[in-house]
Amino acid sequence: MSRRKKVTNITAQNVLLETLHEKVIADGPTGPLFKMLADKGIILADDLATGVTAMANNVSYLAAKKQSQILLRQRDILMKPLIAHTTDCFQFLKSNYSPNYKLVGDWGGTITDGGKITYVTDTVGQVALIVAIKTQNNSYTTPEVSPLAHFLTFQKIDLSDDATNGATAILRDKAYAIAKKSSEDFREKRDKDWPTVVSHINEIGDFAMKLFKGNVKILGAYGYTVINDPKVDQIRDIEISLGTSKLKIKAKIGSTLYNTGTDGIEIYKGKTTVGTPMLLAAGGKITSAKGYSTFSAKNLSTTKKGKFQIIPPKKAS
Asked: Any idea what DSSP says for residue 261?
């Protein structure tokens, strides 16, 4: 059975739209799609104009996204050793001050009476920690010796370098946030009107598939790709969060439901978890019978995700 290949890439969608528009213009007012377009109020020239704007925003989106990824990578390269040094210093200080863990707080750390250290996760906060360690370490003047002095020497940790790299990392982090926001803005602008154009492309394609039934290769002249190979059903992996349900799952009659998790899952007929369920035990299999083309599943575990596969039925040879 022939089926139309859906185009999901915006660049390819624009190419298809251009081909479609050119063919409709070439066909003229007596062409096979002219009345359908008029009846639906679809103006391909307007869609093309929308595509020009969408493509421009897409280019800007991709550029800003790439820049944000570069800045993020640069930030992370700078921060990786700094975070490791911070952790090593605090763990050493914790050991040094044991059992009076609270003294670690003099170095900027947050620690409980039991010795559990809490680390910040944002870049500015992480850099502030290494700067606090550096400041406290430098506060010791001869003849006093910092508790970290020998540790820093043996571990080859230079707190001044870390502080400098941290300042650069903060700049990269701020630039990354700006680039990321910019990419999100351009993506939002790109997607503002484009989905309507895509719906037009698909609506026209679906109409043409019915119109040219029996000779769907004609769609190629309009930019569409028609696939003649039968669609192959794939094994689907389903996950259910602990203690929750997943509703309205679709499966062909005769499919095998295989529990790949470690706890039981309840299988309910229909769109809700109401009624008497079938138990799909851990490692067990059941066949989706008539009435279960739509079913719902409930994870019985409150500690682990429920996992199962939907294995499509084998086609008769």
From this structure: S
Structure confidence at residue 314 (pLDDT): 80
Using CA atoms, how far residue 7 sits from 50, 174, 205, in Å, is 17, 36, 11
Q: How far is 164 from 247, CA to CA, in rounded Å?
A: 53
Q: Among all chains, which residue has been given the structure tokens 């070439």?
A: 26
Q: Does the predicted TM-score (pTM) go above 0.85?
A: no
> Distance (Å, rounded) from C-alpha 134 to C-alpha 120?
17
Partners of residue 245 on adjacent β-strands: 298
CB atoms within 10 A of CB 112: 10
Q: pLDDT (tens digit, 9 = 90+) per residue, 132-179?
A: 999 999 999 988 999 999 999 999 999 999 999 999 999 999 999 999
Both tokens of 19, joined, read 């081909």
* Partners of residue 227 on adjacent β-strands: 3
- DSSP state for residue 235 in the 8-state scheme: -
* Angle subtended at Cα 205 by Cα 7 and Cα 23, rounded to the nearest 5 degrees: 100
